[in-house]
Amino acid sequence: MINFATQNNADMFKGKTIVYTSGTFDLFHYNHLRMINYARALGDILIVGVSTDELVCSYKAKPAIPFEERMKIIEALKTPDIVIPQHTLDHTEIVKKLNIDAFVVGDDWYGKYDYLKDLGVEVFYFPYGMGISTSNLKKSIHDSYQDTLADQQQSKPVLK
Questions:
Q1: How far apart are the first and last CA of the chain?
Q2: Which pTM was predicted?
Q3: 3-state secondary structure the chain
Q4: Could you read off the pLDDT tens digit of each residue along the chain, which spans 160 residues?
């Protein structure tokens, strides 16, 4: 991780390609890792934004993993240089403040961030493809739990 206290930010970023990616990163899984690694390969400095619980709750169900823990998980990865909280889905301010050159997000957001192109940012919609997603994991866990409950209820003797 970059230590802002010991380096001059302007010199540190001069001539570097800065990439920003963001997400909820709930129930961290392989496709999250693939997207972060893809973003890392696009530039010199990788900044990862982790959506706060408040932000996530504004458009979908509350994450299973609390924000602080999701931040720690992303910080523990070797690929991000900087990990920051993400408080809004509008990335205009982040792009301007951090001089972002490229933005990477999952293709389930396709088209949503095209406005960043007007700010000179290359936008990449990472193809998750088939397979693991947090929504699929949550559904699988829920369905498995429901099946287990049903099996247990059927196997218990009925008391009269």
A1: 64
A2: 0.80
A3: CCCCCCCCHHHHHCCCCEEEEEECCCCCCHHHHHHHHHHHHCCCEEEEEEECHHHHHCCCCCCCCCHHHHHHHHHCCCCCCEEEEECCCCCHHHHHHHCCCEEEEEHHHCCCCHHHHHHCCEEEEECCCCCCCHHHHHHHHHHHHHHHHHHHHHHCCCCC
A4: 554 444 555 567 789 999 999 999 998 888 899 999 999 999 999 999 999 999 999 998 899 899 999 999 999 999 999 999 999 999 999 999 999 999 999 988 999 999 999 999 999 999 976 666 555 655 656 556 565 666 777 776 666 6
